[in-house]
Design brief:
By secondary structure, this protein is α+β, with helices and mostly antiparallel strands. The chain folds into three domains: 161 residues, no CATH class; 131 residues, Ubiquitin-like (UB roll) (Roll), CATH 3.10.20; 228 residues, no CATH class. It has 14 helices and 36 strands. The strands form 14 sheets. It has a four-stranded antiparallel beta sheet with strand order 22-30-29-23. Strands 31, 32, 34 and 35 form a four-stranded antiparallel beta sheet that branches. A hairpin with a 7-residue loop joins strand 29 and strand 30. Helix 9 packs across helix 10 and helix 12 crosses helix 14. The longest helix is centred in the first third of the chain and has 31 residues. The radius of gyration is 49 Å and the shape is elongated. The termini are far apart.
Length: 584
């Protein structure tokens, strides 16, 4: 057998050839690998060379650069108005106003501007490229608002049909089909020409808007409810006693409310109950009370009433009001309502005689006539049951114009200023003294800060809404009726305020007033105000008043003497320094 020939280096010839092939292949791999890496380096995340987006060539640029090139290339198209017609009228639409915009980054990404080692992607970069349309976005809120504006200018709102009651008549509103742009169609039309070259005007067409309540719904409501409802009165049967209520009275409680495409009968139960209550002969029960009749206290008897269940009326009325004549009767369960305070209760109060009366006088001022008179009107007739507490603020209420009061002088920080309700303290002082001599329990009272000489010294009271009140409790076993009246002042006569209390006498009250002590002197204030009120001051002092209780009649109680100590501050002299001050 022949042996393998050897080369000059001593190796077999076929082994040497194989090595050459291996090294050749390795060289080719390195060569092509280098070319591939170089191709990837050149392509990177760049867009294929021949790519255009909405007519703008962006090929060969990185993603960021391509987005900038695209934005610059589309700038004119994006900024121009879109020419449209709406119902034949030319309308130029600003894309920004309607919410249209271009998403440049998304447009570049869609065109293939992304980094990849995919050989197909590298091949396409050097040899490919396609034509794309830019990605657009829509601000829905801006778009919808803009379309609403176009509808208001060029369209017609749909009008629902309606049925309403006016007394015993039925009023109808005809339904009307409206016209408005279809938002989806409008958006598609605008997007189609947004970035076109030299687009023709877009015709935006109105579509019919059908009302939720149409003529058929109106007619059905008339036939089934509205017309029968006003055709005849409804009879309410209170266990054999019938009461008729007429359409002109109850129709205000009826309405037809659009609900899910229908006119649904609806009842205002409170309004209907008020109508029926006014037709029930006896009405609501009336509590007994005590009032002056011919100058003497007299029990005003209680009166029972006939009532009904409003829920029972509400449940049956809508059904019966739409029935034909002869079937329009609703049976209700009548109830006899008893008064909360009976005639026997009122008699047990034993309000039989005048137990105190006090009168004060006031100089002429129209605000005093108004405010003191209004306060007396509100206090007059108050009935205090045993254990109840009277509050002047609670009885008279806030001093507002709506409550019948006007501006007058009040004391604030030791000087006189104007405020609503000035003068009401005259009623507080008069009422306090009537309470004082009736022997009732003093709960809260506050004298004026400085002494006013038309009031009994040490026995007077002031009030201020929300801050200072006059309160006393009826701590006797009998009721107390409070009567208050005012004779207005005139430029030549003083006004007169009188408060009297009626009950059964429980105490004889006497009183003493001590000497003034701890005398203080007024100061002088100079006030630079346009509404300054000048005042000649006088001094302050302390004083003690004692109330003595002597039991009367069935009263076997004993009560210690009650001392009222009052400190009056000086009334300062006020000098108005503003030359334009008006002493109102």
């Amino acid at each position: 057998m022949a042996k393998n020939p050897k080369g000059t280096d001593g190796q077999p010839r076929d082994k040497a050839g194989a090595s050459v092939v291996v090294w050749l292949l390795l060289g080719l791999v390195v060569l092509f690998g280098g070319l591939y890496v170089a191709a990837h380096y050149v392509a990177g995340d760049k867009v294929a060379r021949n790519t255009t987006v909405s007519g703008v060539r962006i090929g060969g640029h990185s993603q960021d650069e391509a987005a900038q090139v695209l934005q610059a290339g589309l700038a004119d198209k994006v900024a121009r108005d879109i020419a449209t017609t709406v119902e034949g009228a030319p309308v130029a639409i600003d894309p920004a106003a309607v919410g249209l915009a271009v998403d440049y980054e998304a447009s570049v990404a869609e065109a293939g501007g992304e980094e990849s080692w995919d050989p197909v992607r590298l091949w396409n970069y050097f040899t490919g490229g396609d034509t794309y349309e830019a990605e657009t976005t829509v601000d829905s809120a801006a778009f919808n608002a803009y379309v609403v504006g176009l509808d208001e200018q060029h369209g017609t709102p749909a009008r629902d049909g309606a049925v309403a009651f006016s007394g015993n008549q039925v009023d109808t509103t005809r339904a009307r089909t409206g016209a408005a742009l279809d938002p989806a169609d409008t958006l598609a039309a605008l997007q189609a020409v947004f970035l076109e070259d030299n687009p023709s005007p877009v015709a935006l067409e109105m579509s019919d808007v059908v009302p939720a309540i149409d003529e058929g719904d109106v007619q059905e409501a008339l036939d089934t409810f509205a017309s029968p409802a006003v055709a005849a009165p409804v009879t309410l049967s209170f266990q054999g006693s019938n009461v008729k209520v007429f359409p002109a009275d109850y129709s205000a409680a009826l309405s037809l409310v659009p609900t899910d495409g229908e006119l649904v009968p609806t009842l205002d139960a409170k309004a209907l109950s008020e109508v029926v209550a006014s037709r029930v002969t006896s009405g609501a029960p009336v509590d007994a009370t005590v009032a002056l009749v011919g100058g003497r206290p007299q029990v005003i008897p209680a009166r029972p009433g006939v009532t009904f269940d409003p829920a029972e009326l509400e449940a049956g009325f809508l059904g019966v009001v739409a029935k034909p004549q002869g079937e329009r009767t609703l049976a209700l369960t009548a109830k006899v309502a008893k008064p909360a305070f009976t005639t026997k209760d009122a008699r047990a109060l034993r309000v039989t005689e005048q137990v105190s009366s006090f009168t004060t006088y006031f100089p002429y001022a129209e605000y005093r006539n108004i405010n003191i008179g209004r306060a007396a009107e509100l206090v007059n007739g108050t009935l205090l049951k045993p254990g109840e507490t009277f509050s002047l603020n609670g009885t008279v209420g806030e001093r507002t114009e709506a409550n019948g009061f006007t501006k007058g002088y009040v004391i604030s920080d030791g000087i006189l200023i104007q405020d609503l309700g000035g003068g009401v303290s005259q009623m507080a002082t008069t009422t306090f003294n009537a309470m004082f001599f009736a022997g009732l329990e003093d709960v809260e009272h506050k004298p004026h800060s400085f002494y006013i000489d038309r009031y009994p010294v040490g026995r007077e009271a002031t009030v201020a809404w929300g801050a200072v009140d006059l309160q006393f409790r009826n701590d006797t076993p009998y009721g107390v009726l409070i009567q208050a009246n005012v004779t207005p002042s005139t430029p030549t006569t003083s006004g007169v305020a009188t408060v009297s209390m009626y009950s059964t006498k429980w105490w004889d009250i006497t009183t003493t007033t001590g000497e003034r002590y701890n005398l203080t002197q007024p100061e002088t204030r100079r006030i630079d105000s346009l509404t300054c009120h000048a005042n000649e001051g006088y001094g302050g002092f302390d004083i003690d008043v004692v109330r003595y209780f002597t039991p009367v009649g069935e009263n076997t109680e004993t009560r210690e003497d009650e001392v009222f100590n009052t400190t009056y501050t000086p009334s300062d002299t006020v000098i108005c320094t503003n030359p334009d001050a008006v002493d109102e």
